[in-house]
Amino acid sequence: MRRVRALALAARLASAGVAASCLAGCFSLDIVEWLDDQAKKDKKKKKKKKRATEDKDDDDAVSLGRAEFPPGTERPVAKHVWSTKALDPADYSLQYAMSRGAQDKVLQAHAAFAKKVSYTPLDEGRYRWMIPPGCEPDMGCAFGAMSDSSREALEPIVALFEARQREMKLDAGQIAALVVAFVQGIRYERPKDQPFEILPPASVVAEKRGDCDSKSLLAHLLLRELGIDSVMLSSRAHAHAMLGIAVPAPGKKFNFGGRTYAFTELTAVGSPIGHVNPELLSPDDWKIVVTRWPESGWTGR
Predict the structure, then answer these.
(1) pTM of the model
(2) Closest CA to 260 of 246, 272, 276, 281
(3) Which residue of 22, 88, 93, 144 has the fewest CB atoms within a 10 Å radius of its CB?
(4) pLDDT of residue 156
């Protein structure tokens, strides 16, 4: 490879009137060393530019602070930067340090639940499981179990949002918009390596990835801990999930249990509360999935 690069440079210089035979022979080693040196310099410049861009993004955003679980955890750190047009200023950031041990514990609880309900993956995203007694034939109990194993790990993040809410005197709609934009900013990825192809809420933040179910469940849990009512929505026809949030908002809404909820998409960056792609309403088979919280009576088997 070095010889090829040297000859390529020799050809270019030869076209400029420089002796190609000398470049390809007696000075080839010098040319190779020069090329390597230039490559190293270019690589350093790119890294420096990338760091400068990342630092600028962090500097321009309002930092909500750093959340650690357990307290004192230094690494690994997940840095989140996101924007929302619903607030001024619009740009925010936070850091989340969750220890490897804590991450493993959450995933182990997820695997244990899957084993308890005889979760069996099939093909093309399909699976089989034994729905626990007292649960509807949907994912309500599974969502509840996943959220329950993540609640403690997410308390430091909830505290950051609570502090911002107090500081800026944000109403329910504004803090909900901040949480929704935070979750929307997390990279979309189907966690095919996990039971139900769902990543527990705390893992979504720590790993900065998740699909529609995983991200909707994260937002659902954060909003619940902040005292904001929301419900999980699921569509078989569209193989998709989103939330309904009980805050005043324009756009598409529905009624459930005497309350009005606004459709909220968690996979589309910048999609406001109340907005839903019209294509997702044809057919409109959206179903409310009532999350069964283990601490409220369901314990599984």
Answers:
(1) 0.80
(2) 246
(3) 88
(4) 98
